[in-house]
Amino acid sequence: MENFFWIQIFALVFFIAAAAYFAFRYFALEHALRETALELTEIQGDLRQNRILCLPLPDKGLERLMESINGALEQIRRERLAYEKREREFQQQIENISHDLRTPLTVILGYLKWLKSPGENASFRLEESLDVLERGARSMEHLVSQFYAFSRVNGMDFSLELERLDVCRLLRESLADNYGSLEREGFSLESRLPEHPVTALGNRDACERIFANMLQNAGRYAHSYLDVRILESCGQVQVVFQNDSAEIKEDDIPNLFDRFYRNDVARKKGGSGLGLTIAKSLAEAMGGSLTAQALPTASPGGGDADRDACGTLTTVLFTLTLAAVAAPGAAGPA
């Protein structure tokens, strides 16, 4: 009977101690959670600070919870920084667009004011002004067309209907259409295109737009030559545009396909900075790709005077890659 009494005493002490321990843990955890909630509220007030939650009480379960919350906070910080960067870039892009549109518009308004002012040689002024007004209007038309094409290509519902295309024929036609403007730039043009049809899976309008944008880009930035060629290998068709350039440097290559990207020299040459962006988006919409790479090179001709005048030239290679397909009517398995 006495042993049973001591067992009861021991059990009572044990349960009291256990209750005290769990009560302490409960109130300690409750206090820790309140402190954590207050700390989390402070962190939310200024996410720019690289702060994390610290657990005031050791507990494995809460430690895992804190790790998850800190991971979520870090992700929110990264997204916020990326959002702020996009906002700054967007603001800069809006300023660039406004500047690009305002430049020809200012010229047009200036010549219209000049035409309306009294003076002699009105017929001469009219003829000269019409030429300038036409150039300004065409420049604005080109810019608006580029902006529209960019918004359309990057729309959620944009898609292309793909078909078998003779890429060689389309490229030859694009070269013929742009030959006059390229010739006026004064550099040599070489095309190495196969005589046979080169069939790839693509969209005719998209390919024509890509070729036109690439040739216009070469017309602006090529220094002494443009080499266009078609390669066929491993079920792929590659259209390569290679030229040297004094304006485009190796550091510019990673940014060439960014929307509205133009370096300081390129900005003086006009354009919207969207041509390469649109071309790349169209290539990807056809299941292909458009890439760029650059190699520093000496000036063609090797003259020191030429190098001093132009600076270091860069060989720029743009490669359009499409999936090759058998031409209609090609022999297949028996």
Architecture overview:
The protein has 334 residues and is α+β, with helices and mostly antiparallel strands. It has 3 domains: 2-58, no CATH class; 83-153, Orthogonal Bundle (Helix Hairpins); 163-323, Histidine kinase-like ATPase, C-terminal domain (Heat Shock Protein 90, 2-Layer Sandwich), CATH 3.30.565.10. The chain is 57% helix and 16% strand. The chain is built from 8 helices and 7 strands. The chain has helices at 2-45, 60-116, 122-153, 167-184, 204-221, 264-268, 275-285, 304-310, and strands at 163-166, 188-192, 199-202, 225-233, 236-245, 289-297, 313-323. The strands form 2 sheets. It has a 5-stranded mixed beta sheet with strand order 2-4-5-7-6. A hairpin with a 2-residue loop joins β4 and β5 (236-245). α5 (204-221) packs antiparallel against α7. The protein is elongated and about 125 Å long. Mean pLDDT is 76; it is low at 298-309.
Q: Keyphrases for this structure?
A:
334 residues, single chain, five-stranded mixed sheet, Heat Shock Protein 90, Helix Hairpins, 3 domains, alpha+beta
Query: Strand count, sense and closure of the main sheet?
Result: 5 strands, mixed
Q: What is the spatial order of strands in the main beta sheet?
A: 2-4-5-7-6
Instruction: Predict the CATH topology of the largest domain.
Output: Heat Shock Protein 90
Spell out the helices and strands N to C. HHHEHEEHEEHHEHE
CATH class categorisation of the largest domain: Alpha Beta
The amount of helix comes to 55-70%
Number of domains: 3
Structural class by secondary-structure content: alpha+beta
| CATH superfamily descriptor of the largest domain | Histidine kinase-like ATPase, C-terminal domain
The radius of gyration computed from the alpha-carbon positions, rounded to a whole number of angstroms, is 33 Å
